[in-house]
């Protein structure tokens, strides 16, 4: 594994705290101190201008630019869309006595920053020692509102320690930022103006014409005499603040950003809408806004907190994860998805992967079902693009993209976009999983069934019959394990496609009986033919699932067991990451795997596999797994818990909650591992909590890591908010709200209501 | 196959003749009417300037530019080199009474052009009808000298049909040409000047700094009053010629081009060398130059002609092939290779492939052994680059590039450059084949052995041991059949690597005994260790050769027999070429093959496989072969002849000699299929002639296609020039020069000398 923590930040149960400024770690901290509210996200960069190394990143969910790709082959994409770096709405320049503040040049002391999980704010402060001997304490507070999604707030406060005088400030909106991966600015300015209290600017992306309005109004206890500053792609106001020794003076910038990535509005409409919102924002009371934000977060912690006693680092880590998950997504906006880095960086181009349904969906299903449904709605909204893509690759139905921001395939490595077929099965699994646990039959019948039909059509046309085996399967594919690049009959894809066919057929059968009108409608809308059902049934029935009957080990794909063996522990630490240090082709010719593949489906359909089967497959595949995906350790941890390898389970968990805080992969600088953050939640709830959500009822098999004295977590199940507390002797379940429900604990079905139920901790479940 | 002839050109045994000008076919004709002399090549474009669609292509062997590739993975190339379009040394502009000649705009009649195999010239003539009613016959003759490789000659003649007057001519050297694939000019001008009789210019490529000098001197029966014309990247002379009705007036441009692709000379040195050569060229006698050219070609036809009686189209076709092969390569310049399109176009970027050793080498071995050796010398000269490439891909020894102009890997599709391992085995096969048939032991000991050692090292480090089979082989490869993209244990690669190991070990064993000093030297130079020999021996011995023992069919790779079946005849004609009409990934998941793979090694090591084995494998693989490589039909034709499928053999041969003349693949416009041209020669000699060169002695098994009354061909074997004449009753062998030798005919060893031997045509060998 060769993963080592880089411990640096202070440990605190409710905040991330950095003391002292380290330019080397600046980008990493920019990622960690990111703020977001699903609608927009902003990295924790120094808004006053920083001459050192920084990724000044400001992103809007769905807002994209397009890159043309020089490709001549049919079926390989010709252009891709990516999340584009957008307006720097925090732009600030601060000058005192002609000297401009810049952490790269100025002398500073007492630097600290804090991301607070309860207030939902990011604060940064330090003392600036001017060349002329003056010392000024500067405090930046920022917030993006969880309740008013267009609203961002920035407060800049000054406390002169040894002088009285003034400070010159220029605050503005800057569309002149560089999209780092392209090394270019991707914006055309459309309009900018000062109207009443609002200073605004609007621009559009060069190739896609996505529009973005940004406007701000200022408040300050001191009356402000402002001068408008305009230049290319920029508008701002400059003013002077009087400073009195020891007293704190501040101003607050209320910013409204309105994005239009679908061109649903004209430029005029967007401008007027933005100006109106900004004018209203300028009248808001700052204290009330901050209080509303804190209130929002207190509700979140009430329903979604995980409490760990006896492990302050993981306590902080898991709260950071939950905080970032809510910041990234909470289902307020239809048509949004979760990029691999959320809204915190440009790596992976802001694109969403199968991670959404496979790793993120459970967190939302059991905390915020509206958000879970919204994620599935994204796939429904982009069904047309998936059907277009299926045609591109000579298939029928819907081929969901391996990487996307708006439903179009945006992965420019054909070996991934054309061979990795497991997004469609992730979507159908997601529908199944969501409906099973929320009972949202309405979604299934109105939208899910249509997606299932088109997904099944894709798998029925992409697959083929093996000439020797006579079985059905997928040739020329790459499964979740990206170290087996182009294989036949990947066991994961085959099994997941089989399940997808079966679920589609089950759904249609039940629907025909129970909701004949909706059934007739979906049949008509999809022009479904009776013989297709027979075809899918036959293909599911004859699906090839490569299995060594004697050992009980599933063969990851045809021929995997003959792949040359490599003792992964013999690889020198210096050769990691292998993608950078090994010849590309060399990665693909061993029995070494990058991430769980067989083990992944054993987790997803846990109830269908015996403990013996899990043991056999875990013991075969785990030693061959290099975990070069950040999603890998958590799945291994969950399975290890289940098969009583508690020490190993805890070891794999070590990377989960603090992957970014301790920068295990040394690439947090590029952005947070947002989808891995969701896996950290699963690691505790499905791993130590032993929750399983693929059976008829929700079940638990709690264990307690020996390092912990107790822990608790909450899940919303059938509209009941369940709280599970595990300590060294007992498991306590109670219904916090919503009445009562029944769940399975250690194999026994029990009723849980507000009076709570206490069970002894299962035997052998006190791990270690 | 869906290949249909597009018959257009006149049939003539010694020339290519086009009558009438068809703008639609202009690019195709430009390719067909290409001239070359190994050092340089020039397409048959209209040098007077043409406003229509044209590829104005002028190429120099080895002269290259570099393209950077945005790749971040180790082992995948970061830049590539390609043959760059160079100076238009034929540049001419012709004006009469203010009207400029341009075939795209002018009114013309009586257009014809002719490429003459005996004079080695290209002539184009037509009557130009001016707007003012004047008619002028214009004749362009050009030649690139086969004996003075720097020399090109252009004669432009004018015959006014109904007037007397004058013509204004501007003739020059233009470096302002566009490299079509890049859409840019790739030259920096270095110097231009008029010195004495010579007008010269020198430029260098932008990224690689390859230098090229071009200079010309003019001759004319009429004294020329010239005016120098200079502009960016251009120098020329303009002058006026007096015209008298019915009389022919002309001028001749003697051009010298000197390329320096290895920067072995300074700019000054190259300039001085070029100017000196050009001054000398300007003093040459045109008639003598043309006579020398004709003389050269008469010697070629004496030794290398193939004569076919009763089939004028194939007679013309095979002579065109032989003519183009000599034009492309004849071994006068060390360090040159044969690009897939020769020097006739920019497709395949002017790069050389394994075609050189696998398809072209036999033609040269049996016609011009010096050229054959020179081709192998190219691989020796580029051994350092191949060793560098092996390191790039985490291997040892030498990894010869799949596509190259200068020894560096220049294929930008990683799936080809990193997975197609068969160039190294082609080189070692080439060494073996060449040495076996020429007896050039000196080459083997001085250079061949060193290459063999480094090649074996590569195959010993790239291969792996199968965990289940316990056998050695290659995982993650693409064999010659490019429709199986990434497979394990491709039978061709495994078998060829086994042969390569064995030949290396045999060579070293014999060398150690017979040439101990050279043996010691090569061991020292390569730091060869004794244990490597044991390792190679073991790997050869345990090489996996997938074979179905019952049917005798070799499995193209592990799992091929399970690949889904496709009846290739069910593919609609409109879907060809599949690369353009099928989703890229779809090409790779059937039992459909693109070109011979198993059948290829059965041809290369013909003597090792029984006729029964060939029948079994041919009958299995041929119906699955789509022949989407132009190299495919000839190999099938040769094998079909051997297994008595004479009709089929002739059908496959149909595409061979006239692939470009009848534009079967509809892409001759991009350049000639130069390496396929070599396969056409093999098709006759190895196919109908039944020659085999992989045994202890050269052997023949002649058949006669029913459409032919007789045919003859010649091969140089052990310094004896053998002539084989096959007619409907007999096979006549005679030694034209070089004394006598022994060969095998119909299984019997016979002595052939200048008195000749006549045998009856073998039973069943009168095909059809």
UniProtKB/TrEMBL annotation, chains A, B:
Active site residues per record: 482
Domain Glycoside hydrolase family 65 C-terminal as annotated: residue spans: 691-752
Keyword Hydrolase: yes
SUPFAM superfamilies: Galactose mutarotase-like, Six-hairpin glycosidases
Source organism, top-level taxon: Bacteria
Domain (Glycoside hydrolase family 65 N-terminal): residue spans on this chain: 17-257
Entry-linked InterPro entries: 6-hairpin_glycosidase_sf (IPR008928), 6hp_glycosidase-like_sf (IPR012341), Gal_mutarotase_sf_dom (IPR011013), GH65_N (IPR037018), Glyco_hydro_65_C (IPR005194), Glyco_hydro_65_M (IPR005195), Glyco_hydro_65_N (IPR005196), Malt_Pase/Glycosyl_Hdrlase (IPR017045)
GO term, biological process aspect, one: carbohydrate metabolic process
Domain Glycoside hydrolase family 65 central catalytic: 319-682
Family indicated by similarity: Belongs to the glycosyl hydrolase 65 family.
Pfam families: Glyco_hydro_65C, Glyco_hydro_65m, Glyco_hydro_65N
Keywords: Hydrolase
GO terms assigned for molecular function: carbohydrate binding; glycosyltransferase activity; hydrolase activity, hydrolyzing O-glycosyl compounds
Annotated protein name in UniProt: Family 65 glycosyl hydrolase
Binding positions for substrate per the UniProt entry: 354-355, 594-595
Keyword Hydrolase: yes
